[in-house]
Amino acid sequence: MHKIKILPLFLALVFGLLVVSCGSRKSNKMTDSEKELVIAQQYSDVADSYLRYLNEKNLEGILSLYAENATVEDPVGSDVITGKVELRKFYSKAVNMDLVLTRTGQVRVAGVEIAFPFQLRMNVDGVPMVTDIIDVFRFDEAGKIVSMRAFWGPFNHKPANE
Question: In whole angstroms, what separates CA 22 from the centre of its chain?
Fold first, then answer.
């Protein structure tokens, strides 16, 4: 019959619990790179929410993503729209159209900005059209969009059957 030495097993168990306990306390503190990943995911979620809200014709959802004095330039080079009152007017038109928006690539995150490609499908004078767009959002410290710039032009707009 083998005799088990209780004291060494007990000490090993206590030491193991201490290591696990100390390790779990340390894991609750996020590293800078972990924080960056969380923020990047939050920004990516905003891009997906933005497209979803447009598809759902959810004006309040769209506006909830923006800071109070946010700007929109859609397309880049057009007049800049500033503030939620003007954004409401701009997006009120969009939610009253039959649009289908689909992200076509990854969200790219750099600092407090993101860029993401998507495709807009809609009928123009009864003709199904597709527009390839890249939106760029800049965020404030609360994670709200402070600037949206949409990059597209005549060469990105074509009949859907091409």
Answer: 34
Strands 127-139 and 157-159: antiparallel
Q: 3-state secondary structure string, 135-160?
A: EEEEECCCCCEEEEEEECCHHHEEEC
Angle, CA 109 vertex, CA 152 and CA 148 arms, to 5°: 40
Q: Under DSSP, is residue 33 helix (H, G, I), strand (E, B) or coil?
A: helix
Q: Are 118 and 133 in contact (CB under 8 A)?
A: yes
pTM equals 0.81
**Three-class secondary structure of residue 96 per DSSP:** coil
List the beta bridge partners of residue 131. 120, 157
Q: Show which residues are catalytic.
A: 50, 74
Tokens, residue 11:
């000490």
Choose between 154 and 14: higher pLDDT. 154
